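Researcher: I'd like a structural prediction for the single chain below. Treat it as a standalone chain; there are no partners to consider.
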Amino acid sequence: MSHTPAEEAALAPTPWWQASMPPGAVSRQLGDFTVTVRGPLEPGDSGAPHVFLVHGMVDASDTWAPLLPALAGCQVWHLDLPWSGRDGVDWPGQADALAWLQAALDLCGNRPGIFIGHSFGATVLLAWLAIVPAAAGLAGMAILLAPFYCPPARKPGWNQIDQFARTVPQRFEQSLRVRMGADVPDATVLAAMARKLAERALPDALVELFRMYLASRCWPVAGLHTPLHLIVGTDDSAMAVDSARALAAAAPHATLHLLHGCGHDPVHETPDRLRALVAAMVRVPATEPGAPA
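Model: Treating it as a single chain, here is the predicted structure.
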């Protein structure tokens, strides 16, 4: 039986989604894992804002390609972090997600700018904003797509964690279907691809996600002065929608944007609407980093 190139890649020992790093990328090896950033060719003082892109779990920096037209004129930094699964699954055992993010920002020179994250990446950015003192002086704005946040009054149960874990392969399958479009393979191959991706998130990364989700109950988000734009699809999971609503209510300078008819991946599901939203945000004169809005 012959396979298309996409199907052959999906069944190969090397993950089909593992992209080689482009020229100009800077990496740092920490134990068994690599943090890589790729920034503007001449990251000088041009006056254009720096924008830092933080991908979600089992994803990579190239996921942001559909959003880039909205960032025209900005100095864009792509971050590739261990939760891509590229180097294996046990990265949380060497350092937590916040430490990996800080390593990437160090490679970027800890410049001030606009920070954009998706899903797990958005959650890590929220932790950085809330509990790292230096973040207040660097983040002029944060755009968080489908972040996970648990308000102090909520008491998550084991059933919620179990349900989320059991649906991981289905989530990846849905994401693959959206991203591959007309090139999506048959159901059997698609399911095999989703299982392969799930192996890169279970159990280590998923445990780290829930550790951060539970810890967020103690994050001092009410003291955040950074303007936050929270974007979530109305068709996303109840956990994601509830997280965005709760965070919008808790953070004093947060604005909630609901994308109707969109699920967990607005970058690929509704790129036109997302580009319009983000373009309007980055055109607004930024608040002085760290100052109350």
